[in-house]
Design brief:
By secondary structure, this protein is an all-alpha fold. It contains 1 helix and no strands. The radius of gyration is 11 Å and the shape is rod-shaped.
């Protein structure tokens, strides 16, 4: 996997995590 692809997926995962945080009352910080 190229570095650019890896970084793209990492950024996407972070965005999804933030969205999940806003949508739910439970914290997803522990899923790191």
């Amino acid at each position: 996997m190229s570095r650019d692809t890896y970084n793209s997926w990492k950024a996407l995962a972070s965005a999804l995590k933030e969205a999940a945080k806003k949508d739910s009352t439970t914290s997803v910080d522990a899923s790191d």
